[in-house]
Amino acid sequence: MTDNDEASGVRQIWSALGLPGMIDVHTHFMPKPVMDKVWHYFDSAGPLVGRPWPISYRDGEAHRVQTLREFGVRGFTALVYPHKPQMAAWLNQWAAEFARSTPDCLATATFYPEPEAGDYVETAIRGGTRVFKAHIQVGRYDPNDPLLEDVWGLIEDAQVPVVIHCGSGPVAGEHTGPEPIRRLLRRYPRLRLIVAHMGMPEYAEFLDICERAVDVRLDTTMAFTPFIDEVMPFPTTHLHRLPQFGDHILFGSDFPNIPYRYADAMRWLTELPGVDDEWLRGVFYQNAAMLFR
């Protein structure tokens, strides 16, 4: 499939639903040295990846932005995340500049448990950050770390959504899984969390959390794909629950770091049993449009 053919295929899916385009809440844009290291990690099937993982959209930054625009993606994120202290503030500065030069990107920021986290998170919020990224697996930190108390309070008060990788896939971490998130929400019940990857592989547990916490949402990133179903399939016994969460599920792709084509990720969602066009309209566009105004 050529690039033009793929763009046409993507557009055909959302246009058939009567949508003006789509919103992808889980895309990655990073400083080039960081992105190069991320790609190298995937190429080497590092321990947090656990298996061969080819990158389908290994293109320059401008080309990747243009690809999303040709797909009809009207809003996307630049999910940056640190793996060590004294990295998040620099990533936030880069992401803020990227958003200023890329108006269809939702201004993105991140954080790490460190003494200065509250200060740079407050700066990011004042600067117009629309979404935060937290990566519990890569960062290897407890979301309930005392160094994050100010951070979560600021984010909760500002009602800025947080895309949070907290499930134990593709490889479990010391602080991944539903229980740390349950504890976090008991302390900050108004947090607008977007649980990445549908909470893979603890899908059912994160559906339960979403059911009880009205401000918690899930993104579809990589879930329901043959690549993930080989090792961490969504349980068929819980597929019937998806329609009831129709307004709390958002489309995410993990672009560009996906081992298949973007159009396929969309198509597999359209083939889920029990979902209808209204559900798909919400997932591909309307739910995120409502959340991000």
TrEMBL record:
<dbReference type="GO" id="GO:0005737">
    <property type="term" value="C:cytoplasm"/>
</dbReference>
<dbReference type="InterPro" id="IPR032465">
    <property type="entry name" value="ACMSD"/>
</dbReference>
<dbReference type="GO" id="GO:0016831">
    <property type="term" value="F:carboxy-lyase activity"/>
</dbReference>
<dbReference type="GO" id="GO:0019748">
    <property type="term" value="P:secondary metabolic process"/>
</dbReference>
<protein>
    <submittedName>
        <fullName>Amidohydrolase</fullName>
    </submittedName>
</protein>
<keyword id="KW-0456">Lyase</keyword>
<feature type="domain" description="Amidohydrolase-related">
    <location>
        <begin position="23"/>
        <end position="293"/>
    </location>
</feature>
<keyword id="KW-0378">Hydrolase</keyword>
<dbReference type="InterPro" id="IPR006680">
    <property type="entry name" value="Amidohydro-rel"/>
</dbReference>
<dbReference type="GO" id="GO:0016787">
    <property type="term" value="F:hydrolase activity"/>
</dbReference>
<dbReference type="Pfam" id="PF04909">
    <property type="entry name" value="Amidohydro_2"/>
</dbReference>
<dbReference type="InterPro" id="IPR032466">
    <property type="entry name" value="Metal_Hydrolase"/>
</dbReference>
